[in-house]
Amino acid sequence: MRKLSLKELGRVNIEEYKKAEKIPIAIVIDNIRSALNVGSAFRTADAFAIEKLYLLGISAQPPHREILKTAIGATDSVEWEYHKEEESLLKALNKDKFKIIAIEQAENSTSLLDFKPVKKERYALVFGNEVTGVSQHIMDRADDCIEIPQFGTKHSLNISVCVGVVVWDFFTKLSKETS
Hints:
Blueprint: H1 14-19, E1 23-30, H2 35-47, E2 50-56, H3 65-71, H4 74-77, E3 80-83, H5 86-95, E4 98-103, E5 110-111, E6 122-127, H6 136-141, E7 144-147, H7 159-178
Parallel strand pairs: 1-2, 1-6, 2-3, 4-6, 4-7, 5-7
Helix pairs in contact: 2-3, 2-7
């Protein structure tokens, strides 16, 4: 087996990417402390052509050195927006007709295995702080809450892993619906 070269991968350039159709998902980074995790979210957003990435509160913003280190150029391709306060973000998401989905361990959450995204809906997936999770204010306003099933001794996944798992799951489920 031979690895493919970068040229053989046939990736689009940034201008083509910006014009390309996106999946109806926004990633919301709710007060993430690690700029490396924020950069990883940018890279995942680019990989799966999500609509937009929202940064909230204390989350670092480009061109932060650690974001650029893990994003590897995705800050140039992914549309993003910063909101200092939760309320302005929630208003923007509601205005743009996103269903707000908290990714959190909570009572009455829906297992990621059972959640069925609908193609014509737009989803804002909210990923919370590494210690405190998704803020209660956002939880109170969320349309749904999804939990990733876990079976080990730790109570959570790293935020960058969590973003990858959930966005991949939505991407595959939405792709199957159009097949």
